[in-house]
Amino acid sequence: MASLLHEIQHQSVTIGAPLPLDSGQTLPSVTIAYQSYGTLDAARSNAVLVCHALTGDQYVASEHPATGKPGWWARMVGPGKPVDTDRYFVICANVLGSCMGTSGPATPDPATGTPLGMKFPVITIADMVRAQAMLLDHLGIDRLHAVIGGSMGGMQALAWTAACPERLASAIVIASAARHSAQNIAFHEVGRQAIMADPDWQDGDYYDKFCAPAKGLAVARMAAHITYLSEAGLTEKFGRRLQARDIKSFGFDADFQVESYLRHQGLAFTDRFDANAYLYITRAMDYFDLAEPHDGQLAGAFARAKDVRFTLVSFDTDWLYPTSESRRIVQALQSVGAAASFVELSAPFGHDSFLLDVPALDRLVAGALKAED
Amino acid sequence: MTLRPDLAIIAGAVPTGTRVLDVGCGDGTLIAALRDAGVDARGLEIDPANVTAAIARGQSVVQGDANRDLADYPDDAFAYAILSQTLQTTERPDRIIDELLRIAPRAFVSFPNFAHWRVRLALLWNGRMPVTRLLPVAWYETPNIHHVTVSDFRDLVGGKGIKVEQAWYLSGDKPTSDAAASWRAEHAIFLISR
């Protein structure tokens, strides 16, 4: 499974400069896979960086090379769409530590030529942002019209405003948070333990072996997937309906539709994601706490971001990154006098609402991008 | 689009280049007019549909409740705070005024005058809570939980040692005099300062 995924060729650049990491380690060079859409204008001022979520990738508006499915935000990014590629030069890069062409645990060790596996250093959201900044330097883009992302993509957008506010006009943060809560970390730990308990994980050294930890990764995805939905959404979609049968089996087959749905989600995921990348990226999210370097005062993280226009959106059914986390960010922004917008949208789909059909979100994103100071 | 008369007065009185907060900004109509006049206007609004509309127009508006969320803004965050047609809907109008003058040295406050002669007559003749053009909702479903008159407001700010820098009184869409305001003003707009 893993080998098929890693045979895909992605458009990428390799930057020879060292990338210093929060852990104290340094990557001697970094490869960043990315997709771009639209045209960079003569003033190089219309670039929009789209940041993807945990299991997303750079194929934001183009067909996924492994699954053949449309881009994960095809309804948001494209000609005439809210992130209008007729107006903006849209860049989406695969994050550091991931498995779609950017440097990560599947990257070969230059010394031995075999994949690094768990020898890849532990990374953070800020490290991901540093890698993206290196890509922008490479593309000759000093300043972004906007950085936009949902969920972990929103964390990157926030990390951008803390690290290099002078390179941004606007940040759009959807269904996200400025820190990972104990509950968020707990769910991730379940996923990581499922992967590491799979005998096929082999301490992360499975790339050139016959078996990869597909079962563990599938369980991790199943647990995570529940957190992306809402109880009302699950009930509406599945209720207690049985799957392709009239009576309960009194066994452990997938009697309920919701079981069969989760099993399918888990299995399908293993075709397009790497177990070690899942470990590294969930760890990066767990370490995320924008207030930590500022004595727990979130406002400190935004002290230099007064001139960035912020737009925050939460969803009323999102219990993974609830509205209270967005409000916390808004309060910090107001306390430093930044121009902030915030709204909690009503949508039935839970955390996943940012990926699904919520027309109000489209209007918000289009408006926030066009806003002129 | 023509602005509501009280909003037009406020929009005309805010100096260019200042930063203002419109508390209870609705769909952002006043913010749009202020921006056209070169003012850095932001909003606070409780209704998510209104907030969505304002952000979609490119404005900076935060969804929140004036009764609680003004506390999130630091002292002197703005040159002016604006509270138009909202005072009478707040839980504690006196505390809201304190908050307005904490986050800005000056504030515009506008409200329908409950002592307007039509209101007085309606109550006098019919013995019923009046339903008027500016107070169009029946008593049991009105969001206006603290009806206020021009004299009440003057007393409140006077008692707090707050200065009234300027006042405008509207009868219909036309200005009316200071002296006649208590009876004749349907709508009052005050510019107050610490």
Automatic annotation (TrEMBL), chain A:
<dbReference type="InterPro" id="IPR000073">
    <property type="entry name" value="AB_hydrolase_1"/>
</dbReference>
<keyword id="KW-0486">Methionine biosynthesis</keyword>
<feature type="active site">
    <location>
        <position position="351"/>
    </location>
</feature>
<dbReference type="Pfam" id="PF00561">
    <property type="entry name" value="Abhydrolase_1"/>
</dbReference>
<dbReference type="GO" id="GO:0005737">
    <property type="term" value="C:cytoplasm"/>
</dbReference>
<dbReference type="InterPro" id="IPR029058">
    <property type="entry name" value="AB_hydrolase_fold"/>
</dbReference>
<dbReference type="GO" id="GO:0009086">
    <property type="term" value="P:methionine biosynthetic process"/>
</dbReference>
<comment type="similarity">
    <text>Belongs to the AB hydrolase superfamily. MetX family.</text>
</comment>
<keyword id="KW-0028">Amino-acid biosynthesis</keyword>
<comment type="subunit">
    <text>Homodimer.</text>
</comment>
<feature type="domain" description="AB hydrolase-1">
    <location>
        <begin position="46"/>
        <end position="356"/>
    </location>
</feature>
<dbReference type="GO" id="GO:0009092">
    <property type="term" value="P:homoserine metabolic process"/>
</dbReference>
<keyword id="KW-0808">Transferase</keyword>
<comment type="function">
    <text>Transfers an acetyl group from acetyl-CoA to L-homoserine, forming acetyl-L-homoserine.</text>
</comment>
<dbReference type="InterPro" id="IPR008220">
    <property type="entry name" value="HAT_MetX-like"/>
</dbReference>
<keyword id="KW-0963">Cytoplasm</keyword>
<feature type="active site">
    <location>
        <position position="318"/>
    </location>
</feature>
<dbReference type="GO" id="GO:0004414">
    <property type="term" value="F:homoserine O-acetyltransferase activity"/>
</dbReference>
<feature type="binding site">
    <location>
        <position position="221"/>
    </location>
    <ligand>
        <name>substrate</name>
    </ligand>
</feature>
<keyword id="KW-0012">Acyltransferase</keyword>
<comment type="pathway">
    <text>Amino-acid biosynthesis; L-methionine biosynthesis via de novo pathway; O-acetyl-L-homoserine from L-homoserine: step 1/1.</text>
</comment>
<feature type="active site" description="Nucleophile">
    <location>
        <position position="151"/>
    </location>
</feature>
Automatic annotation (TrEMBL), chain B:
<protein>
    <submittedName>
        <fullName>Methionine biosynthesis protein MetW</fullName>
    </submittedName>
</protein>
<dbReference type="InterPro" id="IPR010743">
    <property type="entry name" value="Methionine_synth_MetW"/>
</dbReference>
<dbReference type="Pfam" id="PF07021">
    <property type="entry name" value="MetW"/>
</dbReference>
<dbReference type="InterPro" id="IPR029063">
    <property type="entry name" value="SAM-dependent_MTases_sf"/>
</dbReference>
